[in-house]
Each structure stands twice: as structure tokens, then as C-alpha cells.
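Hi everyone,

Forwarding the result from last night's run.
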Amino acid sequence: MPLSDAEREAFLAAPHTAVIATLKHDGSVQLSTTWYRWDGEAFWIATNRDRVKYRNLKRDPRITLLVDDPPKETSVVGYGEAEFVTFDEDAYEGALAIVGRYVDDPVGYVGDRQGEQRVLIRVQPTRIISWKPDDERH
């Protein structure tokens, strides 16, 4: 059973971990876990330019993003293309907004990684599907 719009927004506002699928140079799928932020229209992901997911998305921007909560059998999947919004110093604030959803001290957490070549990625899904358990089954 699909989530209502309000249920989907509430679910994506929670600090779940996302799994993203990108395509490797040989066409096989690379799966990566990541933290994200949903702004009501797009997913935001922060990464570094030395990561495989970044190199894959630079070559082929197609991406699938899965956010789920296995014990509750609730999931949201977004399909779209990655857009590289900011790099390095400019990505710091975007990374803080994402990390702040998951840790109490985002500045301390991100600050330990300030020398990295950071990238902020925006994924505005062209298609979103969702599901939740059928209450009659549980």
C-alpha cells in the first residue's frame, strides 16, 4: 500500500539511511549507503570527489535512491539524475545540514573532514514510489 503524501514527507524527514544505486564503468550497479536530506522536492547528498559514487555519477548521472525502515516494512524509492550543485568550501554548509540530521555535533563531525574535496549533490526525482505494510497483514 503506498504512503500518502503526508506520510511520505514525515517518513523522509526522519533520519533514515539511504542506499543509492549508481552505474559503474562496466554497467554493473554500485550500491552505497549515505545520509541525506529531503527538502520536499529533492534529495541532497554530500560526498567527496574521491568516492566511487561521485565518479560514477560524473560519468552517468542516473541514480536510484532507496530509503527504508525494514522492521516497519516502509520504503520510499526515488529515480532521477544527480545534479552537482556545489564543490569544496561551498559544500560545507550543505554537508552540515545533512549531517545535523544524524549527529548532535555536525560541525565537529564535518570539521574533522574539512580538507576533503567535498561535493553537494541534488537529486530531484522524476518518479517516486513508496509502500507501507498493509495493516490487515500485521
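The longest strand covers residues 74-87.

Cheers,
N.
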